[in-house]
Amino acid sequence: MQYLAKINVMTHSEILDPQGKAVKLGLQNLGVKGVNDVRIGKRIEMTLEADSEEAAKEAIDTACKKLLANVVMENYEFTIEQMPS
């Protein structure tokens, strides 16, 4: 079966996010009001073959822990759905 995983990776809230600070300042300079904080992360979409949804989840979790996210500095979460045949 083929699955689509949508993975979101964000730095821990305690870690300084210079990109987010720059975007917040830029928004303020453009006159956008009410922005209290901006954090920049990454979104990854990946398709994979697996025998079951559980096997697909395990593979995605391994990929996140070993390559896609720096678990010391970042959190990750993902959703997974079976793709139509």
Protein model, in words:
By secondary structure, this protein is an alpha+beta fold. The chain has a single domain (2-82), classed as Phosphoribosylformylglycinamidine synthase subunit PurS (Mth169, Chain: A), CATH 3.30.1280. The chain contains two helices and three strands. It has a three-stranded antiparallel beta sheet with strand order 2-1-3, with helices on one face. It is elongated. It starts with a strand and ends with a strand. The relative contact order is 0.34. The model has no long low-confidence stretch (mean pLDDT 97).
Question: Quick recap of the structure?
Answer:
This protein is α+β, with helices and mostly antiparallel strands.
Ordered list of secondary-structure elements with their pairings:
Elements: E1 2-11, H1 18-29, E2 42-49, H2 53-68, E3 74-82
Antiparallel strand pairs: 1-2, 1-3
Summed over residues and divided by their number, the pLDDT gives a mean of 97
Q: Ranges with pLDDT <50 over ≥5 residues?
A: none
Give the distance, in angstroms, between the N- and C-terminal Cα atoms: 8 Å
Radius of gyration: 17 Å
What is the tally of helical segments? 2
- Identify the CATH homologous superfamily: Phosphoribosylformylglycinamidine synthase subunit PurS
